[in-house]
Design a protein that fits this description.
The protein has about 400 residues and is α/β, with parallel strands linked by helices. Helices cover about 35% and strands about 20% of the residues. The longest helix has 22 residues.
């Protein structure tokens, strides 16, 4: 990133986990900058490089978020409802349209707030007054460094949050302890899909002394750990992302499962066949707007279809494939149940059984959520599949 400060040309490495380009125009601001002025510049795409007190920068970010959200509420107001003294009610917004509008609003919000920037020294120290020591959190997220850099304060807060989750861990009784997610790896905060894997009856083939199970797209390794705790003799956990592979390996060591769970890099399936092949693909068939969204959005259902189409070739006789999938996409109008069933049939598979669970996260019961109707109706399912 390039900018001018004190009459001199400056530059530093630009960091953005969401893949945003560095701002072309940058101004240096400090504690004297008014929030309204900063907001106006951010809305124009101007980077705001902070040189004041770190805690004041946090307050400014809160003020910017308040202004973004206020503008969003104003622009999102609907017209008057139909009654005796008003115009006719507007037709309800389709959930698929509401989904797209919400994603656009969240993307614009992230873009605007992402223009408040803080400098990092060559060792990730923050050269600002009252700045905390965040070097370990940055090292975990970005890896070793030997040059100064600039990052958005909002992203830096996300790095700190990920570090805190990594240190604290998430209790997962079915895995035998805590799972420690890493920055950039999907965190197992929704327990219903884990409970489904913990309760589903294991196929007889997976209980044989030399049985092997595959966990496709393992992420933190949570489902591989659950299968190992359930007595599957050996589990091969796959992922493509280096961060996920390192995270899963770390969790297996913490849980004492390294001798039973092998973590390998692979695009979906490893070599060979297994008695049980489990996959929890991203649930929504849409394009991720950043690398951090890859655990949520599956463009063109690539991972879902790749798993279904490759399952038969990787199952041992009598084996099962377990597909963990939410039907949120169906309620949003992004995929139909008929499309899913047709894909299962086209892959030469049959459904042995299906177990459902209601989501337990807060947004499922929040009537102010623009997607409340879909979230309230959502069910997460474990589909037990076999070769037809």
């Amino acid at each position: 990133m390039h900018w001018t400060e004190d009459g001199q040309d400056r530059q530093a490495r630009w960091r953005s986990e969401r893949g945003a380009p560095p701002p072309k125009n940058v101004v240096v601001i400090d504690d004297q900058t008014r929030a309204d002025d900063a907001y106006g510049l951010a809305c124009q795409g101007v980077g705001l490089l902070w040189r004041g007190d770190f805690q004041n920068a946090r307050q400014l970010l809160t003020a910017l978020a308040s202004r973004v959200d206020h503008k969003s509420r104003r622009s999102g107001k609907r017209g008057p409802k139909g009654d005796a003294g008003s115009t006719a009610a507007q037709p309800p917004v389709k959930l698929s349209d509401a989904f797209n509008l919400e994603r656009q609003a969240r993307s614009q919000r992230a873009r605007t707030l992402g223009f408040l920037l803080v400098p990092l020294d060559a060792d990730y120290g923050i050269p600002l007054r009252r700045a905390p020591d965040l070097r370990q959190a940055c090292l975990e997220a970005y890896g070793p460094v030997d040059e100064p850099s600039v990052v958005s304060l909002r992203e830096l807060q996300g790095v700190v949050g990920a570090h805190e989750w990594h240190v604290k861990g998430i209790p997962v009784p079915a895995a035998g302890g805590r799972i420690h997610p890493c920055h950039g790896v999907f965190s197992p905060t929704r327990s219903e899909y884990i409970d489904l894997v913990a309760r589903a009856p294991l196929p007889a083939a997976a209980q044989a002394p030399a049985a092997v199970a595959f966990d496709i797209g393992t992420g933190t390794g949570v489902l591989a750990a659950v299968l190992a705790r359930r007595g599957v003799p050996a589990v091969v956990a796959t992922d493509q992302a280096p961060r996920a592979l390192a995270c899963a390996q770390d969790n297996m060591q913490r849980l004492g499962l390294s001798d039973r769970v092998r973590v390998v890099q692979a695009d979906l399936f490893p070599e060979g066949r297994a008695a049980l092949v489990v996959c929890n693909p991203p649930w929504v068939p849409a394009r991720p707007a950043s690398p951090l969204e890859q655990g949520v959005y599956d463009p063109d259902s690539r991972m879902l279809l790749g798993y279904l189409n490759g399952l038969a070739a990787h199952l041992e006789p009598g084996g099962e494939g377990w597909l963990i999938l939410s039907d949120l996409a169906e309620h949003l109008g992004l995929r139909t149940r008929e499309t899913l069933m047709a894909a299962i049939d086209a892959a030469g598979l049959q459904v042995l059984d299906r177990a459902d669970a209601r989501p337990v996260h807060g947004r499922a019961t929040d009537p102010t959520d623009p997607l409340h109707a879909a979230r309230a109706a959502e069910r997460t399912s474990l589909w037990r599949l076999a070769v037809r």
